[in-house]
Amino acid sequence: MATVTPQVAPAATPPAAAKGRPRRPRVWRGAVLVVAALYFLVPLLASFVFTVDDPSEGFTLDAYGQIFSAEGFGRSLLLSLGLGVVTIALVLLLTLPAMIAVRLSAPRLRTVLEVVCTLPLVVPPITFVAGISTVLRWGPDYLASTPFYQTIIAVQNPDFPVVLVLAYVVLALPFVYRSLDAGLGAIDVRTLSEAARNLGASWPHVVFRVIIPNLRSGLASAGFLTLALVLGEFTIAQLLSFQTFPVWIYTISGSQAQVSVAVSVFSLLITWLLLLVLSSAGARQRSGS
Amino acid sequence: MNGARVEFRGLRRRFGATVALDNLNLTVEPGELIALLGPSGCGKTTALRCLAGFEHPDEGQVLVDDKDVTRVPANRRDAGMVFQSYSLFPNLNVRDNISFGMRVRKVPAARRHERAQELLELIGLPHIGGRYPHQLSGGQQQRVALARAIALEPRVLLLDEPLSALDAKVRVTLREEIRRLQLSLGITTIFVTHDQEEALSMADRVAVLRDGHLEQVADPATLYDRPATPFVAEFVGTMNHLPGTVVGDRVEVLGQSLPIDGPAPSAERVEVLVRPETVLVTPESDGGALVMVSSFRGSTARLRVQLADGTEALADVPGHDALRLAPGTKVRVSLVERPVLVAPGTETGDVRTAVPEPDVV
Amino acid sequence: MTGNRTRSKGWLAAVPLLAFIALIFGVPLLVLLGGTFTRDGSVSAANLTESLQGAYLTALLGSVKISTVVAVVGAVLGTFLAQAVVTSRFRALREAVLTASGVLANFGGVPLAFAWIATLGNSGVVTQALGLSDHGWNLYNFWGLTLVYLYFSIPLMVLTVVPALDGLKPQWREAAQNNGANTWQFWRWVGIPVLGPTLLGGFVLLFGGSFAAYATAKAMVGGSVPLVTLQIDAALSGNVLIGHENVALALSLDMIVIAGVVMAIYLPLQKRSARWLR
Asked: Among residues B231, B253, B280, which one ends one of the domains?
């Protein structure tokens, strides 16, 4: 399961004027915020306490130390990161040219693209993997005599399962499409490219020097959402039996409860860090433009 | 329906460090249309919102027919309001928007719709009752907002820059229509605007506000011809500042001697304030002045003329003279023989920087 | 699409993307569809019938039930939280809540399950500190799972509804007051109808998120709460009668149909609210 969501732009319209409000809503608001803070913070704090509190020794950071020495930690984390990077590259390579071209010269294709890129939202990952595993199971029987046979074997290489990249690209499509569409909507691609062409720029120059630099925050958010999705994706990897990071966490949980909770805390920190990097990149662009 | 008397008494309102209202005193007579005019930030909208109940003054009172309503909640006040833009409820069609207030007062649906239809006819849009706000043009939206504001037959109508988001043409027709409607209903109306032309053309009286207090309140002609302060002179219409010398109770300017409007100042060197339409320009090769820029406006043309001493003046000449007075023409400049306003030189200099004038050629 | 302006070759750039989707997304779905209606090598509706009976039906209904509860509760609580943030004068609070929501809405899967096990599981920190076990507390049931699903659902709702609350123009509230309406009347006739599509859209997103959730449930409750995702997992892992493997595909099809119906309700509403809040 991967609940990856688009983010709200932090600089939305200013909140409704709250001048001279009567007192009652303030009490109400305070109560809501306190309850929410408790609900969202307690599990985080409790998880941390759980990992550092040893019944016999008291406070210890052992569990965090053990993460790094645990069997499979480095391999699975590197695998997940690698999958993330390749997925981002592939999904951008596929969507970016298509979306720019459609905006510039085939506006009627835009609806088609939007619908097609939104479709994966309707298909829960577990049903998608049910389809994939069936293909992988049956494929070799029908394709044994063709070159596709070798391909199907190759994409399942446990050292770098390309099939996961392909599946993750599909899962990421709706989010990447929305991020890029918002980014392209904010800059008038047609006018920009016509202005650049009018000044004598070639098409590659237009794309790489004019459009992409103006699309930075859209690209950054697409990249972040994809990376967060890949780093957290469990369903497909588990059911296809590949040891990605989330699958590894699940596997070690049986033997070492503290370590697996420590890793959970650790993975939340990674997500948080990524988000901060992303939002500061976005902020830089806003102040720069 | 008749209008109420509205009185602002010593209103003060401060937002943090900015003072929006600084002892505002103003009385609006029953059935009158008064325009609150001033640059942005002068407090005109705050005053209106104090009357509507959306804003509460730190000090002072708002009285309607001599009753203090300062602490009455906004939804219990008898004042309809038209907002700057986008105030129609997007989920309701035009008919339901107009009859919203009647729904709140539990008027039966049939009666509500009858009244809404009446109002739609009043604003000249009888066939749009079933449409939604996003299907209307900006002008239509504001008409509907006006109908909604008068649906409950309030005794005061508040207009908060209702025309500022519209095209120039629509603006002119709509302001005539608002005025017609207001006169026929006899409703006391307060109209906030930063557009002096709008204020002068619609209002019975215009109140000019600056930094939260009243500079002058008068009928449009008086305001234009006899501004009480240099700020008003500068803000309403366009003013030339020409150097002059006081001699007795007259002033010497451009080689003419003109009577002074009001008491003669003690200073000898003054600035003479004259409107562009009182500046006369005739082609004359040794007139000493030169046309710099000419912008044609149809019935008139506005010229920027450089005088012999290097100062510049604006002059409005009849449109058919524009060709004779093309840029580069040598001309003679004189003033219409009538009393003129004068101001000590330094003070007007300050005012000139305080009020930006986008209208100048 | 061709012949549109002079640069008619533009659509070619979309071909790789469309081909990719057709192959990687389309083929598995077609195989899924084909497999659903195949048993023992011949066309049959037996898989589908079986997927709508007995334990499978219980699991399907269980998934719909928990998703509905999470979506309703999450939508209501998320909206209140969003409203509290939007009406606050503290800019920093708003930024903090939105950033935290962005992180927490993505905090799912196995780590989420472990965080809650460490908190309210049998040997969880809070369970032990408050002695909850003595009062019959158990995280590993329907309501425990609901509590955990809300942890990512409420932030998701906040992210969805904040832009809509920002889009509620202050003029609307003032115009309503000016027409004599009190706060309740404003919300009843204007506020909630205008927000309606967004709220329903948020409900759909939340429903979909819980409906598809698998990792959290697997790590937390195993099989003690009947869920369709866990049944598919079991069936895919060979935990079925010989010859009935394709029931997993039939169950998947059931899920897609339910998710598709829910989405189909959502998209037109989304369009309308975008128009209103522009």
From this structure: B231
